[in-house]
């Protein structure tokens, strides 16, 4: 397998844009990524397009890539439509990486685009509610129901985890404070106002113990990544960022080990890099407690030590391992089909040393963890990507 280089990245601002569509979002992200690499649409061999919910929210089915990218100069290229819940564009990146690494193509473009905002919020929430096995009975410990199925599921997991680890609501609020601080430094973030522990705890209760600020929001946005072989990258005026590993796993039934744990193990083995070597990470914090749980899933600390890790400040922007310096899903935003690619965009900035005030000093090795859907008591799919310079 050949070495694969990330040569260009781009993304739109994330937010609620009722006046924008999949085309305008995709076009903006693609142009930025191609310009960043110093290439043109004609230089792209293959396109992998990640989108999760257009069929429900906008009605666009089946040819989402072809319709969204028809005005970008990419028309006529091989295009693959990837739908894999919140992991859609990280899955697209995984497939693009395999295509370039195997020699099937020299270059590939990954695009993740999502339009979730809708005049009728029930439509947006309904899209999330379909990312479960509809024939599987719902857990009995979801509580009264908040109107957001996934937040009820996250809350039920959180209550069990609090009993196991001694984590408190203040620990989850600390994640939000860190997230909003990072978001305030990110021009692409949906939420750019800092907050306090008290404000997080006093925000509206969504599903006990999750308050509003502890839950990722509905949003719109697009991200794009131009990747190529190492030889092709030598022709470009770019600082290469290397893909060291890309792993994907799905849930098992019965669940014997969390998908995030298995995906991380595969990525660490593929890259010969351990969790203690990671400088900066983007994790799937669809709810604030999820970030802490992933500290343990990914081996950043021992089981039960995640509350102590967030309290130590080690995961702050200037810490030993900067976690979610983009603001993560909580503050950068979570337009689900764009999220996985957005994580890799942020990590590319970090490894290039161009992340501005949110830069983790001297970042050399980075990790992205992205998961999606729910099945058999776990996320339905998880991916872990490791990058380095």
Automatic annotation (TrEMBL):
Sequence ranges assigned to domain Thiolase N-terminal in this UniProt record: 4-231
**PROSITE patterns attached to this UniProt entry:** THIOLASE_2 (PS00737)
User: Which InterPro entries does the entry link to?
Assistant: Thiolase, Thiolase-like, Thiolase_C_2, Thiolase_CS, Thiolase_N
Task: Please provide the record's keywords in A-Z order.
Answer: Lipid transport, Lipid-binding, Transferase, Transport
> Which EC number(s) does the record attach to this protein?
2.3.1.176
Q: Could you say which enzyme class this protein belongs to?
A: transferase
Q: Which domain of life is it from?
A: Bacteria
Q: Where is the Thiolase C-terminal domain?
A: 246-381
Q: Which PANTHER family match?
A: ACETYL-COA C-ACETYLTRANSFERASE, NON-SPECIFIC LIPID-TRANSFER PROTEIN-LIKE 2
Name used for this protein in its record: propanoyl-CoA C-acyltransferase
